[in-house]
Amino acid sequence: MKGISSMATRALLADLATAAATTAGLPRVEIESVGGIDAARRVAAGEQLDLVVLASGALSELAGSGHVVPSSVTPLVLSQTAVAVRAPLSRQATPPPGPASDDASGVRAALRDAGRIGYSTGPSGTELLRRIEQWGMADEVRDRLIQARPGMPVARLVADGEVDVGFQQLSEMVGQAGVRILGVLPPDCAIDTVFSGGVAVTSTDPAASAVVLEFFASEAALPIKAAHSFSGAPTR
User: Fold this and answer.
1) How big is the CA angle at 148 (ends 147 and 151), to the nearest 5 degrees?
2) Residues 208, 209, 212, 217, CA torsion sign
């Protein structure tokens, strides 16, 4: 079986696919993870796939356009957006800007102070831009915004020094070399993304695909999700 996903869930899905095959005796799914825009384009083009895992909005569009079976769409995980800076810091270095409070004011201050701000091509990046516009800061920070190239995690931009502060899903930041995670965005400006799975209409075995997807959404999968810094599956 074949699947496709955005980069944000690549490590999680690899482990879920292994668990489904080895502990639950289900068919093995080989999931290719690419940029979310590219994944949606390939599904829409009719590529032969069995499972599709994307941000819920993108998956709903594909279901609405007849490329994913609507009744199969299942929420899998919730991902919080985190803030990261380059690490390690030298003892002489001035700590880079980051949220200095537990509300949106600290995030706005970090945006004002940062020389270059990294954000993703995915849903967290889209929502960050919307927040910046909402806060009336678009003109102030526009020239300092740097979008990660498709398929490249924002953490790489941070680690390589291309940006001073980066915003992306926590799951994309955890375990990345050369970055220090300051934390997730405060509750009053949190950017949370729900990733859902669905059976592609091109699936060669939709019944088996649905069973694998059911395992991905089951309680048995919760420890794997937690290990990858995702919250458990929200309700449908």
Assistant:
1) 140
2) negative
Helices (H), the chain: 10-22, 36-44, 56-64, 104-113, 123-134, 138-141, 154-159, 170-173, 206-216, 222-227
Mean pLDDT per block of 10 residues along the chain (236 residues) reads 93 96 95 92 98 96 98 96 80 45 82 93 90 96 93 90 93 89 90 95 97 96 94 67
Residue of 198, 213, 223, 193 lying closest to 77 (CA atoms): 193
Q: How many CB atoms lie within 10 A of CB 109?
A: 15
As a whole number of angstroms, the distance between CA 160 and CA 170 comes to: 18
**Residue 122 corresponds to which tokens in the numbers above?**
């995915």
Tokens of 172: 């994309």
DSSP reduced 3-state for 62: helix
